[in-house]
């Protein structure tokens, strides 16, 4: 069986990547890398692999790398890995500027390596089922979608999370990009966008900590996203609610339901397997990455596809600044 030699750089976000590579059938996890030597050593012992503090020293010993470092480092590190001929699974965002995003995409295409963005929700069975339901129009054409990301991030003043340039923006850019990506995946490229944001409740951040975003799509459907890192107490009605003429499609708590005048029915539900497995939700994504390397097919979340959500967010930011 073909095994791809893998490594993970950055173990704050990358720990789940490392566990997924350890579980993946076509992966041989060679290294975990972090500036915190104790964290790297501990995870390496747990996963039976090597560790390093300087990721450049291990590039010759791997075929593919997950880059899970702070956002402002993504472009520089991805370009170095690509230049060395390595396949790259890059944590979101692709980069913090349009120019750097295009540099990375073009470098991967010139080098002939796989570049894939880490949008794990896209690959989970629950969201694949939602996509199937939307495309089938089983309940009619969707015309309205709402998404609630009500979360709390422990204040980190002075960190790269607080720095607008390093983060790339605020919580919408860093966290909300997952859900902008999902909405575009479900409804297509938006033709009109809007945004308002605030630092209230997250004064430690330079960018917005809470935002409301809206999008209108070519087919006339509308979407609304609430995204926050400042909500200590949260009780969203669902993760997603999507309205069609015939039903309300609700996704949340690991369950996809249809609510119609006749009642409520479960369309899909995640299997309950006891305690959550670290990296379990990342495994579908990692398997897709490895499959693309082995077969040469283009990842569903390649650089060009990832640019759709980033461009939507940048258009929101730019419109907001123009009217400030």
Structure description:
The chain is α/β, with parallel strands linked by helices and 324 residues long. It folds into 2 domains: 4-118 and 279-301, 3-Layer(aba) Sandwich (Rossmann fold); 122-275 and 309-322, Dihydrodipicolinate Reductase, domain 2. It contains 9 helices and 14 strands. It has helices spanning 11-23, 37-47, 74-83, 98-111, 125-136, 164-167, 171-187, 283-295, 303-322; strands at residues 4-9, 27-33, 50-52, 64-67, 87-91, 115-118, 144-150, 190-198, 210-217, 222-228, 240-243, 248-252, 255-260, 263-269. A hairpin with a 2-residue loop joins strand 12 and strand 13 (255-260). The chain starts with a strand and ends with a helix. The mean pLDDT is 96.
Please render the helix and strand layout as text.
Elements: E1 4-9, H1 11-23, E2 27-33, H2 37-47, E3 50-52, E4 64-67, H3 74-83, E5 87-91, H4 98-111, E6 115-118, H5 125-136, E7 144-150, H6 164-167, H7 171-187, E8 190-198, E9 210-217, E10 222-228, E11 240-243, E12 248-252, E13 255-260, E14 263-269, H8 283-295, H9 303-322
Parallel strand pairs: 1-2, 1-4, 2-3, 4-5, 5-6, 7-10
Antiparallel strand pairs: 7-11, 8-9, 9-10, 11-12, 12-13, 13-14
Helix pairs in contact: 1-2, 3-4, 4-9, 7-9
């Amino acid at each position: 069986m073909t095994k791809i030699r893998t490594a993970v750089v950055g173990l704050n976000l990358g720990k789940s990547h490392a566990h997924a590579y350890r579980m993946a059938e076509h992966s041989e996890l060679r290294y975990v890398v972090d500036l915190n030597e104790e964290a790297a050593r501990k995870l390496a012992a747990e996963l039976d692999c090597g560790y390093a503090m300087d990721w450049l020293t291990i590039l010759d010993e791997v075929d593919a790398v997950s880059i899970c470092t702070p956002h402002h480092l993504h472009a520089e590190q991805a370009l170095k890995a690509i230049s060395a001929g390595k396949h790259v699974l890059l944590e979101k965002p692709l980069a913090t500027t349009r120019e750097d995003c295009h540099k990375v995409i073009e470098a991967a295409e010139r080098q002939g390596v796989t570049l894939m963005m880490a949008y794990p929700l896209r690959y989970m069975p629950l969201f694949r089922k939602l996509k199937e339901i939307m495309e089938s129009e089983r309940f009619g054409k969707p015309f309205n979608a709402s998404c609630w990301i009500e979360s709390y991030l422990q204040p980190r003043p002075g960190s790269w999370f607080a720095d607008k340039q390093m983060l790339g923006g605020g919580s919408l850019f860093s966290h909300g990009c997952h859900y902008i990506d999902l909405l575009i995946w479900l409804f297509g490229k938006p033709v009109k966008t809007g945004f308002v944001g605030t630092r209230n409740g997250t004064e430690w951040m330079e960018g917005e900590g809470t935002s409301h975003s809206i999008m209108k799509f070519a087919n006339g459907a509308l979407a609304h996203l609430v995204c926050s890192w400042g909500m200590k107490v949260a009780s969203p009605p669902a993760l997603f609610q999507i309205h069609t003429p015939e039903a309300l499609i609700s996704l949340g708590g690991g369950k996809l339901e249809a609510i119609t005048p006749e009642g409520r029915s479960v369309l899909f539900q995640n299997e309950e397997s006891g305690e959550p497995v670290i990296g379990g939700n990342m495994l579908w994504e990692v398997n897709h990455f490895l499959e693309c390397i082995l077969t040469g097919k283009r990842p569903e979340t390649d650089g060009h596809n990832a640019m759709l959500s980033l461009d939507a967010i940048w258009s929101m930011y730019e419109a907001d600044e123009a009217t400030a």
